[in-house]
Design goal:
alpha+beta
Length: 750
């Protein structure tokens, strides 16, 4: 061996010895830097790798420490039950809590003790004790004291009112834990926290049903049915309930129930009768409490049908009513008592279907990727296609019995809603709001959803329509109405507003923009914000104020009062397809927010949410409505999907009250089928409601302790400029002087 090779071998042996010896590795210091301005720490080898050698994280320990008092309060509430109620359902809930949560508390204490962790958390991350309790859905000491003071139905109602958010708090704690990296690594703990989530969610569903049963509101627990559902009405008269026209429903499945999935043992034989199409039946949901129930649960398809027939928004002009639909639109003439008579149906699938009328032109919003330029039924294949249409359709309705498509404006995000800002004999200006995905640049040039100034996000579309040549309609600008400090994404970026607050969508589009041309102002419900726009220059809208709300999930729509001093914004929590009006749902979520408007600046006044509890088979949340023009008062009629129609008085902006309503039971007993009222609007003395699943309803107001006959007559006599009502273009109404005088006299008892 040469000297050089021996030296090399010696070096390798030395390196191997160094790598193999942990003592040698510790000769170099292991440093843990301190915070800026603080000293470093020198760690021992075993301390540097301490976390890797454990089977739990600090977050796991905090979860257990927080859940112990959480469970303890549940058992404290359950112990109050025995001497305060005879309601068997409440007693059963308390029994399950006492039987389960005491054992779980013991498990959590043992879990912490075995890992050398204290059972009590020593700090709360900067929150006060009260804030910490509220963040976990726990009742305050004052609420607990009030619960202990009640008996009978009052006790039952408050028990459920406190216990539902308490259980929801446990679910939120589990979700927060599992969203952190490395947590619940221990299989036993992972199973434990998931059991908490499943059990608590099951209890919430049962408690919501029990709470609805306690309600004395006639709208609670209405019988389900497509055509024969139970109904409740107050201070309204149902003038007519019209089914959808032919061509706008599936005759074999008019309610669009989900198809039953056949189990293997149910597969058809070779018998001819057995090969018929499976019957569309309702889903079965056994009570989870019936542990011994061996009946299997029916399963149903979850995908939507090829064609959707959902009724959507409305527009009026003179005696003409047009109702939008995902499948096209229908035109009616309004007759005696406001009863519509169908005059034509236009099949043009594309989704959304919101409509506006300007003279002899009808505008229609289209958003779905399957919509075609030619209104065809076959959909569109592929990521890029010249056949696809997403944007604003324009129809000539000068002959309403034979409408013609005369213009198309393709947009990057389609058209979810649109607002007619100004119109004269030469030009119509429209604001377009697209809320869907950004299409590919290869399909429509200039469409990008990536970062940078060229993105199709963070803007609205300003569309110009030449009245004499609608085919030449085009986007003339895409103003960055959300910009702030030279950033186009200048408003709400998404996320929650702190512990116990709502997770709010980011502001990169507007859902609705309600323009008020008489006042040169607009209110935008823009996903994560409510905004005010100056529209004195219609082609160049400028944002002048904006607000957020910690309880709003999605700013959906906006309505001014008649003098423009108040705005009612709606929150579409859950997107419109989920049951968000159950007894245990937060009263401040999925509600209306009423703001005063002074010097074009918004100030929050109050919240209003539908007071009647709905079931878990009824999609329900705040949706579209309009002002009922009673002189000197601010009255609003509103659609709540399967929550029905509600009329509220918000003249006192801090104390809105309900003065009339109509509601039906769910479409189906065991399936949650999207239905109910998309829109409810006052026009020419009647309330019109587009019922998504069932058809078109018309109502009349009835005199009551809330409204005099003269006030109703004044609303019927209100004058709309041009005799037109478009949902996102607000007209300042006027009244004849003698009508106002009669109203004032009626309020004095004259």
């Amino acid at each position: 061996m040469t000297i050089r090779t021996f030296a090399a071998a010696a070096s390798l042996l030395t390196l191997a010895s160094t790598l193999a010896s942990p003592l040698a590795a510790q000769d170099a210091p292991i440093i843990q830097p301190g915070a800026p301005g603080k000293e470093n720490r020198t760690l021992k080898a075993e301390d540097a790798t301490k976390l890797a050698a454990t089977t739990f994280t600090p977050a796991d320990a905090r979860f257990m420490q927080m859940m112990i008092p959480h469970h303890a309060q549940a058992t404290e509430m359950a112990e109050l039950v025995e001497d305060r109620t005879s309601n068997e359902d409440i007693i059963a809930i308390a029994g399950r809590i006492n039987a389960g949560q005491a054992d779980e508390i013991a498990f959590m204490r043992d879990w912490l003790s075995a890992r050398g962790q204290p059972a009590k958390m020593m700090h709360m991350g900067g929150m006060s004790h009260e804030e910490h309790m509220a963040a976990m859905g726990m009742a305050s000491p004052e609420q607990m004291a009030r619960l202990a003071s009640l008996k009978g139905t009052e006790f039952d109602a408050l028990f459920l009112q406190l216990m539902i958010p308490h259980h929801r708090g446990a679910i939120d704690m589990v979700d927060d834990l599992l969203n952190q990296p490395g947590t619940a690594y221990d299989p036993v703990m992972f199973e434990f926290v998931n059991d908490i989530r499943v059990e608590q969610q099951g209890e919430i569903e049962r408690m919501n049903a029990i709470a609805a049963g306690l309600s004395t509101d006639p709208r609670a627990n209405l019988a389900p049915g497509f055509r024969d559902a139970g109904e409740a009405i107050s201070n309204l008269r149902l003038v007519t309930a019209m089914p959808k026209p032919t061509g706008f429903f599936d005759p074999a499945n008019p309610a669009q129930l989900q198809p039953r999935i056949e189990d293997e043992e149910d597969e058809p034989s070779d018998d001819v009768d057995a090969q018929e199409e499976p019957e569309l039946v309702a889903a079965t949901t056994p009570d989870p409490r019936d542990a011994d129930d061996e009946e299997s649960e029916d399963r149903f398809g979850q995908r939507g049908s090829l064609l959707s027939f959902a009724n959507t928004d409305m527009a009026f002009s003179g005696d003409l009513l047009v109702t939008g639909n995902y499948h096209g639109w229908n035109a009616y003439r309004l007759g005696e008592d406001g009863v519509p008579q169908l005059v034509s149906s236009v099949v043009c699938p594309g989704g959304q279907g919101d409509v506006s009328i300007v003279g002899d032109l009808l505008l229609m919003s289209v958003q779905d990727s399957r919509a075609r330029v030619d209104c065809g039924l076959g959909g569109v294949q592929g990521r890029v296609s010249e056949d696809r249409f997403r944007g604003l359709r324009i129809f000539d309705i000068s002959d309403i019995t034979n409408p013609r498509q005369v213009g198309l404006v393709q947009t990057c995000r389609g058209s979810h809603t649109h607002s007619v800002v100004s119109a004269d004999a030469d030009r119509i200006v429209v604001y377009n709001s697209g809320t869907s995905y950004v299409r590919d640049d290869a399909e429509l040039a200039g469409c990008f959803d990536t970062a940078g100034d060229d993105t199709a996000l963070f803007s609205i579309d300003v569309i110009e329509i030449p009245v004499a040549d609608p085919a030449a309609s085009r986007i003339v600008d895409s103003p960055r109405v959300f910009a702030e400090n030279d950033q186009i994404a200048g408003l709400w970026r998404g996320g929650d507003h702190g512990e116990g607050t709502q997770n709010t969508n980011s502001t990169n589009h507007c859902h609705d923009i309600t323009v008020f041309p008489a006042l040169d102002i607009a209110a935008g419900a823009c996903s994560g914000n409510g905004i005010i726009l100056d529209i004195s220059s219609p082609l160049k809208p400028q944002r002048i104020d904006d607000v957020t709300d910690k309880g709003f999930a999605y700013w959906h729509s906006a309505t001014f009062n008649n003098d423009g001093t108040k705005i009612l914004f709606t929150d579409e929590w859950g997107g419109g397809g989920r049951p968000r009006c159950q007894s245990g749902d937060p009263r401040e979520w999925g509600a209306n927010a009423i703001y005063s408007l002074e010097d074009r600046q918004l100030s929050f006044e109050s919240l209003y949410k539908l007071p009647a509890p709905q079931s878990d088979k009824e999609n329900c949340v705040a949706h579209n409505g309009s002002i009922i023009p009673v002189p000197g008062r601010d009255i609003f009629v509103q659609a709540w999907y399967q929550g029905g129609i509600s009329v509220i008085d918000f003249t006192d902006a801090k104390n809105p009250i309900e003065i009339a309503y109509f509601d039906r039971g769910p479409v189906d007993k065991q399936q949650l089928i999207t239905g109910g009222y998309w829109s409810a609007y006052w026009y020419d003395g009647r309330i019109y409601g587009t019922e998504i699943a069932r058809g078109l309803d018309v109502f009349a107001l009835e005199p009551s302790e809330f409204l005099t006959a003269e006030e109703i007559a004044a609303a019927e006599a209100a004058r709309y400029e041009g005799g037109v009502f478009n949902p996102q273009t607000q007209t300042q109404v006027t009244w004849p002087e003698d009508v106002i005088a009669a109203v004032e006299a009626s309020r004095k008892g004259g």
